[in-house]
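Protein record
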Amino acid sequence: MWNLNDLKKIKYLKPYVYFVEFDNGAKGEVDLSYLLIKGPVFKPLKNTKLFSSARIEGGTITWPNGADLAPETLYEAIQKRPTNH
């Protein structure tokens, strides 16, 4: 069963990579470059200026063009590749 955790911090590190931290203390880097081929809502994120402008909304990462990711997707990604910051 998935225990929903909200993002509490994001930090842009480099093109297509964010450091994320959840409210339960889980944290790590996520490479989101794979999103760029996932459909029309993510295509504009090839522009690194737009990609770097993400914010936290509703407990997850969102971009000004309406793109967002489910928090469990980010959580699973950091469980595979944890990083301490």
